[in-house]
User: Which sequence fits this backbone?
């Protein structure tokens, strides 16, 4: 008990800014990998980062990646997961983006613009993960059999909790995707969409 108290006292003796910087450095060191670029990213909890050989993940400055419940009102059911699934796959995340316990998987490309909000439990993927045809669906040997199309999310988009963004979708700037929606078609700029499959339920002035 005395050792624990002593350790806490030592930690408290450091300035808060120093502690935050040291923690962020530790997390960045933990997730560092070839092809992973995080410029001035703030981490709250340790995300899961997985890169396929010769793929890349880039995150812009001042973005915040949350992987622990105490840092967001809704909490998170899982750590944020960023994963590439094939050679040449790219995940590009812009500046000032907030991500809370989301899953982003790319076999081709997932591009997210600046100042986007990605709520707890959101899933974004550019592929079907398995072939649609029955033969060899369970035991895949060739990703050429998997349907895949790039996903683009433009600037200032808000994805509500548990929204699912499917392959081939482009979401226009300033739009909002309601909680729990499944987006399978493009969303025009400054629109509010909701439902499964999602449809336009409002516009933003």
Assistant:
């Amino acid at each position: 008990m005395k050792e624990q108290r002593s350790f806490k006292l030592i930690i408290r003796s450091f300035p808060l800014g120093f502690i935050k910087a040291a923690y962020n450095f530790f997390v960045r060191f933990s997730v560092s990998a070839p092809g992973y670029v995080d410029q001035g990213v703030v981490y709250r909890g340790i995300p899961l980062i997985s890169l396929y050989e010769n793929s890349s993940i880039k995150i812009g400055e001042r973005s915040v990646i949350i992987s622990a419940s105490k840092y967001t009102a809704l909490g998170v059911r899982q750590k944020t997961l960023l994963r590439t699934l094939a050679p040449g796959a790219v995940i590009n995340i812009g500046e000032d983006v907030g991500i809370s316990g989301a899953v982003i998987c790319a076999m081709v490309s997932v591009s997210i613009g600046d100042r986007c909000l990605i709520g707890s439990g959101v899933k974004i993927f550019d592929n079907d993960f398995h072939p649609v045809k029955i033969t060899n669906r369970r035991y895949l040997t060739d990703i050429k059999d998997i349907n895949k199309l790039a996903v683009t999310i433009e600037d200032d988009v808000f994805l509500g909790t548990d929204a699912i963004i499917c392959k081939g979708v482009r979401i226009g700037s300033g739009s909002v995707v309601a909680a729990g929606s499944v987006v399978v078609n493009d969303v025009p700029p400054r629109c509010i969409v909701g439902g499964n499959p999602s449809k336009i339920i409002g516009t933003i002035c």
Summary: The radius of gyration is 19 Å. The helical segments are 2-12, 16-31.
